[in-house]
Amino acid sequence: MAAIEVHELERTYRSRKGVIRRRRTEVRALQGITFEVAAGELFGLLGPNGAGKTTTIKILTTLLLPSGGSARVLGYDPARQPGEIRRRVGHVFGGDRGLYDRLSALDNLRYFADLYRVPVREKRARIASLLELVGLTGRERERVETYSRGMRQRLHIARGLLHDPEILFLDEPTIGLDPVGAREVRETVASLRAQGKTILLTTHYMYEADELCQRIAVIAGGRFVAAGTPRELKARVLDRTVIELETFGVAEPTLERLRSVAGVASIASETREQAEVLVVQSRIGAEIVPALLLELTGTSVGKVITREPTLEDAYVELVGSA
Ligand SMILES: Nc1ncnc2c1ncn2[C@@H]1O[C@H](COP(=O)(O)OP(=O)(O)OP(=O)(O)O)[C@@H](O)[C@H]1O
Ligand SMILES: [Mg+2]
């Protein structure tokens, strides 16, 4: 049995807008999404802002009812058997609040353990092992207000695991963390994966998804786009070479000419620090560079880099064509 089964899942948000002439508005956040997560799998749900990731997680964790389709979490129906699911799943949202700042990490965990009805005789050992897992052993008596955001987020993960859930939902667990904090959270997630915990993770960092996830589903605008292992998704762009050209702004007509250079599969423009970087996917390898530079005559070009495609290139391709 799959740990999570989502079949043609739909969700429409209905709200009223306007003060004087109130109109009904509808947002079709999920328009028939299907995927499965196996037990013990670390599964990534990826997609641009507004894709429907958080909506999906809220339905699976029983915080929101679906409008159509079906879902099963550990065999239970979130709409009909929410109690069965709540007992067996944990969730952590990125940028989560809801820790008691004036209390120590230990007191926070003790408090939530009581709230989640962790049996008294298991409480102490469970808290100790969770502190170890999230790398906070030795710091547990310090007040949470003195914690870095990375430490807080790891404490949130410990909180989400207190009732020993079979599945953990992590919605953008590294959002807003500095690189070191984010790496520590990834290490925590990786050790959970090693323990065989079923995890559904969302992130906007493709590097993170590639490093952590065993399988990925990409959704956009409430619709399913693609699913597979990171390697399978990358294979879609594997015959390509990526050329990054650092420029300082390129006019649209030039961009159009570049797009029509023989061998160009796609061009995306990214702003990085002071420069505008043109990310060119080439079907003919690095041989394409002189032709590109020819079209850029008269434009100042900085660094030119040739590299293998990454999951991010595959993602941009998938979502761009969705
Ligand atoms: N409570 C709500 N009322 C109305 N519309 C909503 C509500 N919550 C979400 N939406 C809309 O539903 C769609 C999906 O939102 P959702 O939060 O699931 O996306 P997401 O993939 O989690 O995006 P992000 O990457 O920005 O977190 C968006 O268009 C959003 O504006
Ligand atoms: Mg979200």
- CATH topology value of the largest domain: Rossmann fold
* Number of distinct beta strands: 13
Distance between the termini: 31 Å
Output the strand order for the largest sheet: 5-6-7-3-8-9
What oligomeric state do these chains adopt?
single chain
User: What shape does the CA trace take?
Assistant: globular
Bound molecules: adenosine-5'-triphosphate, magnesium ion
Mean pLDDT metric:
93
Describe this structure in words.
There is one protein chain. The protein is an alpha/beta fold. The chain folds into two domains: 4-234, P-loop containing nucleotide triphosphate hydrolases (Rossmann fold); 237-320, Alpha-Beta Plaits (2-Layer Sandwich), CATH 3.30.70. Helices cover 33% and strands 30% of the residues. It has helices spanning 53-60, 82-88, 105-115, 120-133, 149-160, 179-194, 206-212, 230-235, 252-259, 289-295, 311-320; strands spanning 4-17, 23-37, 42-46, 68-73, 89-93, 167-171, 198-202, 215-220, 223-228, 241-247, 264-272, 275-282, 301-307. The strands form three sheets. Strands 5-6-7-3-8-9 form a six-stranded mixed β-sheet, with helices on both faces. The chain has a four-stranded antiparallel β-sheet with strand order 11-12-10-13, covered by helices on one side. It has a three-stranded antiparallel β-sheet with strand order 2-1-4, covered by helices on one side. Helix 3 (105-115) packs across helix 4 and helix 5 runs parallel beside helix 6. It is globular, with a radius of gyration of 23 Å. It starts with a strand and ends with a helix. The model has no long low-confidence stretch (mean pLDDT 93). The structure holds adenosine-5'-triphosphate and magnesium ion. Adenosine-5'-triphosphate is lined by residues 13, 15, 27, 29, 47, 49-55. Magnesium ion binds next to helix 1.
